[in-house]
Structure formats: structure tokens, C-alpha cells
Design goal:
The structure is a homodimer of 549-residue chains.
Chain A lengths: L5 H7 L35 E10 L6 E4 L10 H15 L20 E6 L18 E5 L3 E6 L2 H14 L1 E2 L5 E10 L5 E7 L7 H13 L4 E5 L15 H6 L10 H12 L4 E5 L7 H6 L4 E6 L2 E9 L4 H17 L4 E3 L8 H5 L1 H10 L5 H17 L4 E5 H5 L9 E4 L4 H13 L3 E4 L15 H5 L9 H5 L1 E8 L9 H5 L2 H10 L7 H17 L20
Parallel strand pairs in A: 2-3, 3-5, 8-9, 8-17, 9-10, 13-14, 14-15, 15-16, 16-17
Antiparallel strand pairs in A: 1-7, 4-5, 4-7, 6-7, 11-12
Helix pairs in contact in A: 2-3, 4-6, 8-11
Chain lengths: 549, 549
């Protein structure tokens, strides 16, 4: 990775701290004191870490990753073998790779080997990560052998990232790592990024680059908000007309089954789950283009107006369609969960439609259209249950009192701090598991250091019992797509999402904004060196600036 | 350029207009109605344009740019010859170029030639553009010959850009241009972009890409805020220790004389002036690292505190240094103007220093430190006057009552609309020329369509006579560097700066936000096709999305 040397970190310190013509900072935002953190550039901070003063060297001509004797995953495990190549490249850099020496003599203070040991009988190498996966690892760096132990390959991947983050260059440019002990595990099991490929189509290249960066930040869930009102880029084998008619372009702006498979495998190799969201009954304008009679015809007085509203909840054909559609989804996406949306249903079209009115009367719903919404969602949840998937739904579904399976995840996205904390309390007191996103809508930009407020939010800060707190399984940073596409998505997401990554991984007590600033500055320069255009936190420089434009 | 076809423009229309979970738009911001503009993708809109319904074809195998008989610039004019190659590439695209046909038979509705005629005796081909340059042009598109007439090469460059913007693809992908007449000239002579290479170093590649994009938007001034408190990347031949000590890094983060020369020539070939800013007496922390005794030593009680304030205005050595430094600057930068800054001088250090106090008493300045500031600036202006340059200064210098040459440009950057309008009125009623930037601080981002407010600001909207209005020579969009570097600068600047480009070029009456939205959406897709990561205005797609990440 051509890591930052200590001298480079000190140089970073020079570039900061004077007031400037346009430096209108948010009043709550701390103006950081710049100095190298005692934790170097580690991000997110491990649960336990002891870095000694003893510097050891690494050489690209001798260093090896090896599978420990007795490890339950080895040469045939592509998750590990791919990761070794990736991290060798990060640590020793691109073009100037030297030939591995046959005569592997090494100095007394040289680390020549990182021995990787998977300790569970089931390494999970050929499986997929899941919400119950053990992601812990233990890392011990010594000369000549460093040791990484993890119950599963998913923990080992995190350990490899941490190992690479411990490597730096001394003042002569020599690869160096201090003797170190790390014992690490995530605070929350679900640490996600939502990307939206409907408001703007996101080329596969962009998705993969962001999965790569997620791994550098120990995120483990890609929440793929794949379709919405604006476009339907998912090419369905069962209903190909959905993207044929509903995508921005049926050939250049779709994800084929092969594309989706590639995204899922690329993610798996980095310990990342892919959870697709197919949001209904609202947010479905693009679905209606390829699927006749799926959406509710809106009326203007006594006649259809020609426009359409949410999914039509009163037709049997709707549920036939959903059964076949979600059956496909459940086989295409291996994760145990699917996100069903359920947010922001606009009732005005339903209210205008005489058939819907009649149905409301028959069912005894009166004027309460949220009962109709619940009627729909209830039937949808039953359909998805038959596919053996768990489901995640936006908070409105819970707010409307729909009957939910006990293992449902309720995703909180609305409101200010007081409001979302009260929602989290309600959900957990009803015994449901929950995910937080409200403070992490990273699409909402503002001028200044806008990583600090997301960093300060804590998903367990609400009034509730210890039992309730345990029902918080994590959160997601969301980058909705109205204002981002391939041109600006990556720098807008990173390193702002890194702030969320540390909140979801590290111990609750890790809240020192100054220390975070210093580690994060170095971490962002590392992402830049790895080819990711992660934007700056504030006035500063990186030893190697981004090579693109 | 593989321009947008009309059908592509209509497709663009599909991607928009539903309310969405995170669509919190500014209340003043208009939600646009999407439809192709009758002006296609022209940006900025020419002063007069008549596009007929007659479609003509262009072929990469036959089309030529030619120098008209009697033109005062031709085969030996590198400004034109370079531009022909650039625009051929934009129009006919990159890899699939065909060999020019010897047998140049053409259909009756084919444009085979754009004849370029420079009409002034002095074409200015070997010179530099300046504030008094004539940038007008007349373009007439017909078959088989289109004609572009301009008094100078600078006008011809704008005409070539307009010609390229008129080309689109028909539904079969054929290059098409409608028979058209354009008569065009800029509303304001000074249309600038400020980039700041001190808070973050901007690699040459980034500067050049943005100059390229400026030309696509008919900007004609690159205001290079090259040094500031944070770093001094300008490698001075006379005082090399300034960057040796004051740059972020003396080798990797500096602009050598060859770099500066390359930037100036690249800009000249695109009709862009390069005006450097060397801001004093404040904003000079980085200068003090390489130049002993230049800055004022601050005192803590009776002893020096070890920190330094603004330039020390009471030493003769200061003025010797400035004389030699600005002599170099005046020869390195060919433009007729240099920007001398003069903003935000913090008096606290001066107040702490006993020698300064003594000097204040001797001069009879009392406690009025703005008099000391004026004393310094006055001497600096006299120095710069001897180099035969005009100067631009930030508004504080005028506010403090410094005596200014009549041709001084006063740059307004402070305040809200009411405040900057009152400042513009004051400056022009005192008979000075002025430049506006207050509404165009594009570093200040916010969520939503933040191109609309900059688009609505008009530099001549203030209370004053017609004579006063004429003293407004233009404005500049500023992208201060605290939060931008190579990773995010380009998408953050474009197409937001394009809004300012149209305000400064097009007629005052061009204010239709809907029409602007539609033209600008297409213009931004064109910039993307030309390899510039210009960010989206709102939910939408481009026929060819950005290829980077």
C-alpha cells in the first residue's frame, strides 16, 4: 500500500489550522488539532490493540502469506488466496514488484511470513457471509512470523486489512511494521452501505470500486436499492419486459444476470453480503411500464386520468406477479434477507379510484388507507416467507401496525435525533431487531467537515433496557441517488462513510474527534493510494495525490 | 463529441419528477419540467441564434476546417490549428476515426467544410487574450459550406465551441447539424474561475482538465490563487527557498517554471487568461518559512511568542523583497493584471508587537491599524505599478480607503445579496471597475439543485446609473480549496460553474430556469462524453455514462 510513514504523518500536520476567507465551519464542529495518532492510521479502530515501539521490516522479495498447519482453509480457498494477492499488492505496491527470492535469508528483525489460521471446523470459505457470521480475529505481529487467527474466513479478511494498515514506510522508504497485538471483533453485526442505482444508473465499475472500499472500512452489507420510480435496471429472467420498458435504456443501462452474479461474487470475496431492495407498493412507477395492470390507475373525477399510483393491492394478478418475481429474487440473491421497502406510500391515487373505494368498503377499512397498505404488505410478507428469506422493511410498515415475523429487521430512516431515538425505543420494546440510518443519509451534504456529525451518532443512544439495546443489530450509511452518478459518487461517499464504519465496528467509547481526525486523514490518503478518489477532510496533502481528475 | 440526439433528450425526460424519500429541495428552487429546449444543448446561450428545421449531415471522412481566403490567420496559427484538431475529435469521436477520403463527393445536404475567417488585421494569434480582446463571432451553417467569421482568434475559438454544440446524432447515429445562424459576443469581458492550489495542491493534470472545461463554457480567466497560508507551491527562480520550505513537499507538491509556462500556454490556446494571485499582507504564513523577517513576530507580553502574523510593514527589507518578487511575477505571467489580494488582515499580531506600536505612533496612525494596512498596500501598489501591470484587489482594500489607480479592478466577495449590491454601488459610484464573486462561492455546497441560486444572481442588479453598470466588467466563480483536491474538484465545480458561465456570457434576459435546466442537462452529458466528470443536476441519465469511478 505504500503506507504513510511517521514523517509523512507529521508533514500532514503542516497543512492545517489557519482561519481562511471561506472557512465557515458549523459551530458544533471541532477544529481538529493535527498530530499523528498513537494508533497510526488504523481505521476503524480495533477493539483491542497494543502497538509496541519495536519496528520490524518487510520485504517484497521474501514476504509470504501462508496457510497455517491445521487451518481449516488453505490453498483451495479462493476467498483467502484472492485476498493474499490483493493485500500483497496493497502493501508492496504496483509496478516495482520484485521477483520472489529463492534464497530466503532474512534479518533478525524481519517479518517474512503472515501465517493465517482458520480455526472453526467450518471455515465458511465456500459459503456466504451472513448476519450471524463470526467476524472476529486475533493478530500477532512478530519477527520472523506474524500470526492471524480467525474462526472464519470473514474474520481473516478483516485481519488482513488490519495487518496492511499497520505497515508504514520508514524515512528511507522501507516497509516497516511494529510488533503488535490485536484482538478484534465488530460491535454490530450489520454494517451497511445503501447505493441507489435507479435515480442514476451506476456502472458495474463504480459498484465494484465501492465494494473494494467497503472492505477497506470493514463494512459487510451492500444494500442495493436497485430499482425505484425513475428506472428499473434489474434484468429479470422471469419478467424481462420490466427492464426492457422500465430501464433508462434496455441495453446500456441494465444489470444482466451475469452482472448481478459478478457483483455478488466480488462482494463475497470481500466478506460483504448483498441485500437487494425491491421497494413496493410505492416507488414503483418504473415497474408499471413493463407490467400491465400492476399499478393502480388514478382517476380524475369519473374517468381514468392516464397516470398511475402505487401497486394495485386489490387484484389477484398483483400477488401472482409478486410470487413469481420474489421467487426469482430469492434464487438470484443468496443472502438470507431481502429488503422490501414499504416507505412513503402516497394514498391520493388509491383515494381517486372507484374500485379501490369499493374494496375498502367491502373490507371494512373505512377511510383508513393505511389499512389497505397493511393489507398489501401482509400478503407480500407471506409470499416472501414462502421463499425462506428473512425480510427488512422501512419503519413505516412497523408504524402502521402490520403483523411481522419475529425475526423482521425494521429499518429506521426518518426524523431528527429525538425522533429516531424514540422510534428505536418503540421498535425494540416491541421486541423487534432494528437498523439505524437516519443520521447517516450521506446524500445530504453541507459545507464543512460533514463527517463529524455522522461520527457522533450512536445507534444505542436511546431510552431502553439492555435487552432492547441488544436488538440494535447495526446500521447503514445511505447515499440516495438524485445527485450522484459515476462522476461524483465515490468521492462524495468516502471518507464520509468511513465515519459510520468506525461507529459500527469499534467500541462505543471510541469517540475522540481529534484522534479520529488524525487517523481518518491518514486512512483517506491510504484509500487514495489504493486508487480510490476519497475526498479530503480539510486543508492537507497526501504524499501521493490522486492520479485521476 | 457524439452529441445528444433529440431522441436521447426525450429519453432524458423519463428519469425525473417523482417525489422521493430524500428529496428535500430548497424551497426557492424550481422543480424543473423536463423537455428538450428549442436551443438544443447550447451553453452558454448565444446572444442571437436562429436554428432552422433543415437537417444537414457531417461525415468524418469528408469534413474539414479550412482557413478562408483573406483570413488574417491560417496554417501557421497554432491557436486555430490546435483547435481544429480538438473540435474534430469532439465532433467525430475518438477511436473509430476513418481515413479522410480523397474522392470527396458529398450529398446535397452535407456540410463538408467550416470556413474560418479572422477579419481583423491583427488576428492576435501569437499574442495573449486580454480584457479588451474582441471575443465576438458570426457563424452561419449551410450546405456544403459553413462559415465562421471573427475579428480575432479568440472569437473564433468560441465559434468553434458553438459549432460543436450544434452537432447532434440523428436516430441512426448520423452526425447532424441544422442550418443555423449565430451572432454572438459576451455580455461581460471578464469571466473567471478561481482555483486554490494552496489549501490542497492541485496536480497539473487537474488544472489542465479544468482549463479544457472552462473553454467548453466560454470562461476566459483562470484566477490562480496559487499560494496562501497553508502552502507555497510556486517555485520562484528569485526566491527558491519559498517553495523549498513553504510547499507541502519541495519536489512533489510544487509548480516549476516549466509547469507554470505549460499552464499559461495551454490556457492561451483556449483563449483563457491566467491571472495569478499573490495575496498579502495576510494569508502569508507559508511565505514566512522560506523568507526570514518577512512576517511580523507576534509578542506574548514583553517577549516574542514564536508565532508570526501578517507581512511586516515597517521594514525596508519587506519592500526590497516585494520589488524583486513581483518583478519576477510580472515576467513569468504575461497577463496585463496581477491579483494582489489584500483581504482579511488580522491585526492582533501587529497590536502585540512593540516595534509596530512605535511605528504607528511615529506615523500618527493612533490605534487605527487599517491605516497601517493601507500604508503597506499603498507601497505595494506603487511597486507593482513599476512592473507595468494593472492590479486586482479584494474589496477590503477599497473599503479601507487606499488610494488606487483609476484602472484598478475591485473584487467583491463579501456579504449576502443586499450587502454585495450595496458594495457594487459604492465601488462604481467612486468610478472604479469591479468584479463580482459573492454569490459564486461554489465551495459552499448544499443539498439540492445548488446551481440555481448562482444562476439567478446578476452582477448588474444594484442601484446605480447606466455609467455605473458599465463599470462591472464581470465576475468569477470561486472554488476555495479547504475541501477539494484532485479527488473531488472537477465534479464539484462542473456543471455548477456552468451556471455562472451563462450569467456572464449570455444576454441579461436569459433567465428561464426550465429552459436552462434542459440545456444544462444536455451540456453536462456532453462534458461527460468529453471525459470530464461533471456531476448530475438531478435524477437522469446520459447516453454514455462517465467511464471513471
Amino acid at each position: 500500500m505504500r503506507a504513510l510513514s511517521v514523517s509523512a504523518l507529521l508533514l500532514l500536520a503542516l497543512g492545517c489550522c489557519w482561519g481562511t476567507q471561506d472557512n465557515f465551519l458549523d459551530e458544533d464542529v471541532v477544529e481538529p488539532v493535527i498530530q499523528a495518532s498513537k494508533y497510526g492510521s488504523l481505521w476503524p479502530l480495533p477493539q483491542k490493540v497494543q502497538i509496541s515501539d519495536v519496528p520490524l521490516k518487510l520485504s517484497g522479495t521474501t514476504f509470504e502469506f501462508t496457510d497455517a498447519k491445521g487451518s481449516t482453509a488453505g490453498a483451495s480457498c479462493s476467498v483467502l488466496q484472492n485476498a493474499y494477492r490483493r493485500y500483497f499488492d496493497y502493501i508492496f505496491g504496483g509496478p516495482k514488484k520484485q521477483k520472489m527470492s529463492r534464497n530466503r535469508r532474512s534479518g533478525p528483525t524481519e517479518v517474512t511470513e503472515l501465517q493465517v489460521s482458520i480455526t472453526s471446523p467450518d471455515s465458511q470459505c465456500d459459503g456466504y457471509p451472513g448476519v450471524t457470521s463470526d467476524e472476529s480475529y486475533e493478530l500477532s505481529v512478530d519477527a520472523p512470523v506474524a500470526v492471524l487467527k480467525a474462526p472464519t474466513v470473514w474474520g481473516a479478511l478483516h485481519g488482513l486489512e488490519t495487518f496492511s494498515q499497520l505497515v508504514y514506510e520508514d524515512k528511507y522508504g522501507a516497509k516497516t511494521i511494529n510488533s503488535t497485538k490485536v484482538s478484534d471483533f465488530p460491535r454490530f453485526a450489520h454494517r451497511g452501505i445503501l447505493l441507489d442505482s435507479s435515480r442514476h444508473f451506476l456502472p458495474i465499475k463504480v459498484l465494484l470500486a465501492n465494494l473494494e472500499t467497503m472492505a477497506m472500512n470493514k463494512f459487510n452489507v451492500f444494500h442495493w436499492h436497485i430499482v425505484d420510480d425513475q428506472s428499473f435496471p434489474y434484468l429479470s429472467r422471469t419478467f424481462p419486459q420490466l427492464s426492457q420498458k422500465g430501464a433508462y435504456h434496455p441495453y446500456t443501462h441494465v444489470y444482466t444476470p451475469a452482472d448481478v452474479k459478478m457483483v455478488i461474487e466480488f462482494a463475497r470475496l470481500r466478506g460483504i453480503r448483498v441485500i437487494p431492495e425491491f421497494d413496493t407498493p410505492g416507488h414503483t412507477q418504473s415497474w408499471g411500464k413493463g407490467q400491465m395492470d400492476l399499478l393502480t390507475p388514478c382517476f380524475s373525477g369519473a374517468a381514468p386520468s392516464g397516470t398511475f399510483g402505487p401497486v394495485n393491492p386489490i387484484l389477484n394478478t398483483t400477488y401472482d406477479f409478486m410470487s413469481r418475481f420474489f421467487k426469482e429474487v430469492s434464487s438470484v440473491f443468496p443472502d438470507g434477507y431481502v429488503h422490501l421497502g414499504g416507505d412513503e406510500v402516497d394514498f391520493s391515487c388509491w383515494k381517486s379510484n372507484p374500485d379501490i373505494k369499493k374494496f375498502m368498503d367491502e373490507q371494512g377499512f373505512g377511510q383508513d388507507y393505511s389499512k389497505l397498505e397493511s393489507f398489501y404488505i401482509q400478503k407480500l410478507l407471506d409470499i416472501v416467507t414462502t421463499t425462506k428469506k428473512g425480510y427488512i422493511i422501512w419503519q413505516e410498515v412497523f408504524d402502521n401496525g402490520v403483523k411481522l415475523k419475529p425475526d423482521t429487521l425494521i429499518h429506521v430512516w426518518k426524523g431528527n435525533q429525538e425522533q429516531y431515538q424514540s422510534e428505536m425505543a418503540k421498535i425494540t420494546s416491541a421486541g423487534y431487531q432494528t437498523l439505524l440510518s437516519s443520521p447517516w443519509y450521506l446524500n445530504r451534504i453541507y459545507y464543512g467537515q460533514d463527517w463529524q456529525n455522522p461520527y457522533k451518532a450512536d445507534p444505542q443512544d436511546f431510552k431502553g433496557t439492555e435487552e432492547q439495546k441488544k436488538l440494535v443489530i447495526g446500521g447503514e450509511a445511505c447515499l440516495w441517488g438524485e445527485y450522484v452518478d459515476a462522476t461524483n459518487l465515490t468521492p462524495r461517499l468516502w471518507p464520509r462513510a468511513s465515519a459510520v464504519a468506525e461507529r459500527l465496528w469499534s467500541a462505543k467509547e471510541v469517540t475522540d474527534i481529534n484522534d479520529a481526525y488524525n487517523r481518518l486523514s491518514a486512512h483517506r490518503c491510504r484509500m487514495v493510494e489504493r486508487g480510490i478518489p476519497a475526498e479530503p477532510l480539510f486543508s492537507s496533502f497526501c504524499p501521493h495525490e490522486y492520479k485521476g481528475i
